Known about the structure:
Layout: H1 2-12, E1 18-21, E2 26-29, E3 35-37, E4 39-41, E5 44-46, E6 49-50, H2 58-73, E7 87-91, E8 110-114, E9 118-124, E10 127-133, E11 136-140, H3 147-161, H4 164-172
Parallel strand pairs: 3-7, 7-8
Antiparallel strand pairs: 1-2, 3-6, 4-5, 8-11, 9-10
Amino acid sequence: FVMKALVTTAKKFPEINASIDDVAHEIVYRHYFDFGFAADTPQGLMVPVLRGVDTKSINELAKEIVTLAERARLGAALREELTGSTLTITNIGAIAGQYATPIINHPEVCIVGMYRMVQKPVLISERFHPVPTMNVTITCDHRLIDGAVAARVLSFFMNLLKSPEFYAELTDSK
């Protein structure tokens, strides 16, 4: 679901799915969605890449994530499986984290951090209620994406994650 929400976000804000070619001094906009995801392995953090995220179903993505993460953990991932991502997602929450500043996976210009979901008191109709909440961060290369754009990207992305309509749309299509 997170990757699908990120595809929708990248279509609205194409600069997050771009890179900066330092040699040619140009911005390269990617019109495909090959997302990396951080995998904790005995050899250290690795970033396997899911190709064509926009063309795959939720089930296909889930199976591929499991397969690629396992190959990375076993040290069996091929070089092609660990290179060429256009944007990366890291889930620090899997290791109990609630806050961090993820580092951009060069030459990408954006990384999204997901964190552990926790119950927090939220004021609803003048009463506090325990509500599951999760922090989400975005780290951007400010040569292309300034703080205001990053805030808009994050707001749009988080609203998708909270939207029942978005999930209904995903079950109707890829």
